[in-house]
Automatic annotation (TrEMBL):
Entry-linked SUPFAM superfamilies: Metallo-hydrolase/oxidoreductase
Example GO molecular function: damaged DNA binding
CDD domains: SNM1A-1C-like_MBL-fold
Protein name according to UniProt: Lactamase_B domain-containing protein
InterPro entries registered for this protein in UniProt: RibonucZ/Hydroxyglut_hydro (IPR036866)
GO biological process, one term: double-strand break repair via nonhomologous end joining
Amino acid sequence: MSKSVSKTKRDKLIRENKSILSFFKSTNESDNSIIEKGEQKTPSEVDTTVVPLTDTMVSLPQPRRNVNNLWTNVGTNNECPKHKWLMNTPFTVDAFRYGLIKGCSGYFLTHFHHDHYIGLTSKFVGTIYCSEITAKLLEKNFGQLLSIVALPTDIFINVSGFDILLLDANHCPGSVLILCRLPTGNVNLHTGDFRAQASMLKPPSPLTEFILSKQRISNLYLDTSFCAPKYTFPLQESVIDAAIQISREALITHPGALILCGMYTIGKERFVLDIYSVPFFT
């Protein structure tokens, strides 16, 4: 059967990709609330007002656990490599395989894929910072004992004196880029795993300020898994449209055929939902 994409389908590629996060409801869409250890704080307790990059931030409530006195199992075998640290901060990113890390007061998790949270157990006592969706996935899989601070996206929050902004990474539900502004004015950007698209650098994305102004990102931690000329991937929309066309042709030829979609924990939701939404028989 043909796997080509028709002109009509190709014309649809001009559409911007939907955000993966659009398929999942936030913890509380009406008040930008923050969840810590499974308890929801109200706006009166936590101010999460959207502000420009140049404004000062409100402080996030301190984690309930004092992890600074818990470095009892740190040894040379689990020394955290330099690239796992956000430069000049007490934060590490996706570094759970190293256990408790001396000097680290905040463990950021970019998204809930095993290769990024590997090493994490229900007994981990460090404070984890992540998106609201990732926080729910952590609690579902590891229980309620983890010390989790769930941060909203697109809003700056001050964490231990550092301004933190989470942005949709367009990778899987809950995946985020981490933008960290230091008191010195320097800015770190950690992409985690992400799917780049033009809208990430267009208004209203905060990243546009690094294009339209003299402000620059000081340190970039970049996902380069496929950053080589030999990799040429089609747009996600074209892959979905091709899958829809192949499925339609298969069902016309074999009306009783069962369409199976290969899945893992999370990350294929957009693909499945888009195929499911198509009325194959009209």
